[in-house]
Amino acid sequence: MLSSGHRLPRGTGTMRKWKIRTKMIAGLTALAIAFATLVFSSWSQMSRDRTLANEIGLLADEIDLAHGLIRLTEKFKGSVYDLQTVGNEKQLRPHQPLHLELPADWGRISETISFDLDRLQRALATYRKKISEQSEGESEAKLLIDRDQQLKNLAAIESHLADIQTDWNQSEQLQDQLELSFFRADLTAKTQQVEQLTATNFEAVQGAIKQFGEKVDNEHRAKRNTFWGLTIAAFMVMLFLAWLFWTLIVVPFRTLIKGSELIANGHHKHKILLGTNDEIGLMADTINEITDGFNNAVANATLAWKRAEQEVRERTREAIQNEQLASVGFLAAGVAHEINNPLGAIAWSAEALEESLDEISEEDGETVDESFLAELRTNLGLIQSEAFRCKGITKRLLSFSKLSDSSRDTENIGELVERVVALVGKVGEYRCKTIQTHLTGDVRAYCNAQEIQQVVLNLVSNALESVDTAGKVDVYVRQEFDPLTDRRNAIISVEDNGCGMSQEVMDHLFEPFFTRRRDNSGTGLGLSISARIVSLHHGALTPYSDGEGCGSKMVLRLPTEAPKEVSPTALRTPSLPTSTFAQTIAEDSELISKDVEKVA
Fold first, then answer.
1. Helix, coil or strand: residue 542
2. 470 Cβ contact list (under 8 Å, min separation 6)
3. What pLDDT was estimated at residue 252?
4. In Å, what is the CA distance from 27 to each residue of 16, 21, 102, 455?
5. Strands of the sheet with 552-559, listed across from one edge
6. How far apart are CA 562 and CA 483, in angstroms?
7. In the Cβ-directed half-sphere of 439, how many Cα atoms lie within 13 Å?
8. Within its chain, how far is the Cα of 196 from the centroid?
9. Based on C-alpha coordinates, what's the Rg of the chain?
10. Predicted pLDDT at 434
11. What pLDDT, on the 0 to 100 scale, is given for residue 586?
């Protein structure tokens, strides 16, 4: 299909749908926004200058307070040093008593230390109050220094001063120079800690001043870049508006004219693709409606044809299978009737011979070899067993050709599958193989539970037969919508990682008497009867495999509700008898039945 149109850049999708008048209003609005942005930039610069002035004032006050705290700390340290000097004037001499009197000038030094300590505490309280007010009232100040860390340092200084004050208040109890020496050492250590903390605080203030200068420089560069950026942006807005006028108005006009000429020249499948919703776009849409309707009609007809073709293939395959099953059923009925009479004679004769052997053993037990009689009894028993086995096969062949009525109802497929898996898991030869069920929600189907249970048993047993000892079989139960039939189906998918199937095997998989078991056992009726039951349930049984050695998958689809044309309570469709079909499945896997009986 031919089409003409201009490719609009990204970001213009919304504007393409505007009217021409709306586009003009949008352009003027963009210019107004650019002007408002420039005004806002100027106002924000003035506001920031005022904030910087406030920060300079805050830094100046903080420098004075921090420097005063340093100075008072040095003064207090000097007084403590005087106390240390006085204490060192008198050294203990050999054979001199430990308890001596305090120095004579102890009172003067004590008053000096008390005075300096009080000044230092008051200055610290003033400093801390000022910092707290700045931290709560001026959010910009937090950009200069970490106020939380600073308050922690000041609190630590206050704590040390409180300890010094407590110790100093107890200094009046000193009685001699020995006690003074211990007190002096402790006081000196705490004073050094206070000095270190005040120095750390002053360094933080100095760092804030340095950061303040860097911040001012950065903001200056940022504002300058913002100014040039906004100026360039305003210029780009004007260029962008001119480009939009060319792209959204001039170019669509040219495209509309060229497209109209192509349609007039006979290109009826041609479409004019403008992608706009203005007056020009409405003109193009009016022309495109005709081609859209035609293309939709073609697409719908193609889809309907594909669905019909798929339905015909499915129905043809089902008809062929049903015809094959009907032919086999007719043949099976004749063969079964013809074979039953000879089999009955063989079984009766073997039983009569066995009774004769019993009479011989009672009358002439001494003249006849007992080992010979035992061998005869064994062979006669084998003849009877095999005759009855053949008779059972003919009986199942007769049941294959007959139909009976069975009622159906809405059944829980998940519980049905779990029962089958639990049954198969008890079989001796399958206990070493892994089988798992994967249920998705509450899945229900309209079916005969016993018949579908036997179908699932056949699928699961076939999958287990195809895998090795370490093989794995997964059974998935879910529900999905089939758009082809416009109905919801219950899906049972039996997947294995066994020997797989070739395309030839899948083509003949549901034919009667077709079997590819690795041990050459089975009659090949299991899957054919299963397919027949699924067909009578208006379902489908589909095999999948990527080839030999790649595993296989059998997908069983069942409708979730009864056909609309038949009442669910009155529906009775032909199907195999439950007991007869159970015998047929058991014959197809005789070892399973024997092991299940042993477990029971």
1. strand
2. 432, 433, 434
3. 82
4. 14, 10, 93, 72
5. 434-439, 472-482, 487-496, 552-559, 540-544
6. 18
7. 13
8. 57
9. 52
10. 85
11. 41
CA distance 555 to 477: 10
At residue 366, does pLDDT exceed 80? no
Whether 594 has a pLDDT exceeding 50, the answer reads: no
Place of tokens 């208006």: 538
Structural domains of the chain, ranges and CATH numbers in brackets:
24-236 (1.20.120.230), 404-599 (3.30.565.10)
What residues form DSSP beta bridges with 412?
444
Q: Which residue has the tokens 């059972």?
A: 392
DSSP secondary structure string, 228-248? HHHHHHHHHHHHHHHHHHIII
Cβ atoms of residues 524 and 396 within 8 Å: no
The span from the CA of 5 to the CA of 12, in Å, is: 15
Measure the CA–CA gap between 472 and 553, rounded to whole angstroms: 12
Give 518's contacts (C-beta < 8 A, 6+ positions apart): 465, 466, 499
Give the separation between CA 295 and CA 230, rounded to whole angstroms.
Answer: 50
Question: Distance (Å, rounded) from C-alpha 223 to C-alpha 41?
Answer: 8
Q: How far is CA 120 from the centre of its chain?
A: 65
With a threshold of 0.70, does the pTM exceed it?
no
Sorting pLDDT into bands at 50, 70 and 90, what band is 477? very high
219: enclosing H helix or E strand: helix 177-245
Strands 271-273 and 3-5 come out as parallel
Q: How far apart are the first and last CA of the chain?
A: 70
CB count within 10 Å of CB 160 equals: 18
Determine what percent of the chain is predicted with pLDDT higher than 90.
7
- Residue 526: CB partners within 8 Å, gap ≥ 6? 458, 462, 584, 585, 588, 589
**DSSP label at residue 482:** E
pLDDT in tens, 59-110: 777 777 777 777 777 777 777 776 666 555 544 444 444 444 555 566 666 7
Q: What is the pLDDT of residues 397-451, one digit of tens each?
A: 665 555 445 688 899 999 999 988 888 877 767 777 888 999 988 999 999 888 8
Structural contact between residues 167 and 186, judged by C-beta atoms closer than 8 angstroms: yes
**Of 141-145, 315-319, 440-444, 465-469, which range is least confident?**
141-145
The token pair at 462 is: 């076939």
